Amino acid sequence: MSHISNKVSICICTYNQAQYLEKAIRSAAQQTILPTEIIVFDDCSTDETPQILQRLLAELPLLKIFRQDKNCGIAKNVDDCLREAKGNFIIRLDSDDYLLPDYTEKLSKLLLKHPSAGYAHADVQEINENGVYLNKRSLFRKSEFQSDTDALKASIKGYRVAANIIMFRKEALEKVNYLAGRPNFGEDYHLTCAISAAGYGNVYLKEILAFYRVWSDAGKLRTRRKLSEINGICKVFDDVIEPAYIERSWHLKILKRKRASLACQHANCLSWNIYSKDEKKEIALELVKLSDSLKVKIVSGMYLNDFGVFIFIITNLKSNIKSMIKAVLLNL
């Protein structure tokens, strides 16, 4: 193992994930280029997390442990963790994910090669709760540098990384004030867009460098967070993307079309039987905040009045065609 001239901090945020936490920490400690510190912020876990951390603290001199006084949520816990880091490069790693040994080495080299890049990211291998391999996540773009302009234009299509396992340049985080004021849902999307809007590009390596855990959702907890998800997307456009377009004198028509497209896409939740009538009304109002176009109102009305099956057939067909084309192109 070796060190790099630019210091690297690995930040791990956790809450009640004791069964995965040690693997995440050990993956950070076993990098081919050692970090200068591994910082863990525990958001007031109620499981065995404190005991595991104390045991590892006695073994790993790089480990630094912090515990919140009360549960403060994802955005605040991540913000506190990233701000504590002293490294020039800062890796965000969730406690149920883990890194391959050359993650730090390969991505730090890319950031050193491209000083105007605010963050670096790579492909990931999806795994389930039991570590079984699922899909490989890869982006439809070339490796290495993407300018801030190209990143901003691509961001209207959604969060343009394979997973939220990212190496940030500390300077870029400081310039956008870390996660201050960002939503609890979609805070990672909001942050990368802000970094692009601040004038930083990013670098990408089309190679699997980490494992990203995808949870089954038997209790439909993720599904019930749809209101927060739509709110998070609204904030990305309202707080970051639209002001950046205005500042650059770019046409806003494309943003209006994209907001309408996203609102129509998320409107399908209005047909789900997990929501009450009042909850559906609340979601419909949030969709109007994302886009108040006539198209969105018509699509929302169709879903609310049980005509969503026709929309589902059309959109599902389009999605399948796009997926097949992307799969073919990625394998060329």
Model description:
It contains twelve helices and ten strands. With 332 residues, it is α/β, with parallel strands linked by helices. It has two domains: 206 residues, Spore Coat Polysaccharide Biosynthesis Protein SpsA, Chain A, CATH 3.90.550.10; 108 residues, no CATH class. Strands 1, 2, 3, 4, 5, 6, 7, 8, 9 and 10 form a ten-stranded mixed β-sheet that branches. Helix 5 packs antiparallel against helix 7, helix 7 packs parallel to helix 8 and helix 8 runs parallel beside helix 10. It is globular, with a radius of gyration of 21 Å. InterPro entries: Glyco_trans_2-like, Glycosyltransf_2, Nucleotide-diphossugar_trans. This is Glycosyltransferase.
Task: Describe what is shown at a glance.
Helices cover 46% and strands 19% of the residues.
User: How many individual domains?
Assistant: 2
Percent range for β-strand residues: 15-25%
The secondary-structure element order is EHEHEHEEHEEEHEHHEHHHHH
Main sheet characteristics: 10 strands, mixed
Number of strands: 10
What low-confidence regions span 5 or more consecutive residues with pLDDT below 50? none
Distance linking N and C termini: 36 Å
State the helicity in percent bands. Answer: 40-55%
Task: Supply the CATH superfamily name of the largest domain.
Answer: Spore Coat Polysaccharide Biosynthesis Protein SpsA, Chain A
Number of helices: 12
Q: What is the CATH domain class of the largest domain?
A: Alpha Beta
CATH topology of the largest domain: Spore Coat Polysaccharide Biosynthesis Protein SpsA, Chain A
**Structural class by sheet pairing and helices:** alpha/beta
**Backbone shape:** globular
